[in-house]
Design goal:
With 250 residues, the chain is α/β, with parallel strands linked by helices. The protein is 34% helix and 19% strand. The two termini are 20 Å apart.
């Protein structure tokens, strides 16, 4: 594992790590996480988190980068969801300056990270293939319009809205409405877009996957996993689908 930091376009520090593939490498993958929801349930199976997932991908012969979006982990800034595409761009810029430089990077993006990746791909041809895992078409499923203060305080307690945040809860919540993957996917510069979604997703309804597929206006591969919920990274069926795609397309 090789830690790194880089700066987003607005100066926020983004922290990440690279997991080199055994030689020879056959490509590079960037993994984007979803919106953190605190500690996993006490009965959840222990796992190695995103580092463990990165090691599995690297074992396929693919150099793998993981990172924390702003407001999460060791990265700076606050949880400003509409600026997450900047953070992904900063990571790609960092890889461009490294020995891992590629004309394109496979991007595996989970949930809110999928929304950021789809948005970024409308202006950045480096994301290809783009693999959205339980990606939302928008954030309308979140009750931010009525419970903005509660959500704001929740993420403040989790340390993702940090001291000195310059706006109100309502202004913070409004940032979610600015994220529109449904519109962005029609402009995506990715040559290949693949969407994986659990049929029993309790957070982002599976209808979002179909909406994104329709909105793309071109062929998009859609894999619906029967009986699978939202946490695709924690479900072997979700991970297996991702691994199969990377073997074929990575």
């Amino acid at each position: 594992m090789i830690p790194f930091t880089c700066l987003a376009a607005d100066g926020v520090t983004i922290a990440g790590a690279i997991f080199p593939a055994p030689s020879p490498s056959r490509g590079a993958v960037v993994v984007a996480h979803g919106l953190p929801a605190g500690k996993p349930p006490s009965d959840a199976e222990p796992d190695e988190g995103y580092p463990g997932l990165a090691r599995k991908i690297a074992a396929l012969g693919l150099d793998t980068a993981i990172f924390n979006f702003r407001g999460t982990g060791e990265s700076g800034g606050h949880l400003d969801i509409d600026l997450w595409p900047l953070d992904l761009g900063a990571v790609l810029d960092h890889l461009d300056r490294s020995e891992l430089r590629r004309p394109r990077y496979a991007v595996v993006a989970f949930s809110a990270g999928g929304a950021a990746a789809i948005t970024r791909s409308a202006d950045d041809a480096r994301l290809d293939p783009l693999i959205g895992m339980a990606a939302p078409a928008d954030y309308g499923f979140l009750p931010l319009g009525t419970d903005a203060e509660a959500w704001f305080q929740f993420y403040r307690k989790l340390g993702m809205i940090r001291p000195g945040y310059p706006g109100t809860a309502a202004e913070w919540a409004a940032r979610f409405r600015r994220v529109a993957p449904r519109e962005a996917i029609a402009r995506s510069q990715a040559k290949a877009i693949l969407l994986v979604h659990g049929e029993a997703d309790e957070t982002v309804p599976v209808a979002h996957a179909y909406e994104l597929q329709r909105a793309a206006g071109r062929p998009v591969e859609l894999r619906i996993l029967p009986g699978v919920g939202h946490q695709l990274r924690r479900d072997s069926r979700g991970v297996d689908a991702m691994i199969e795609i990377l073997r074929q397309r990575g």
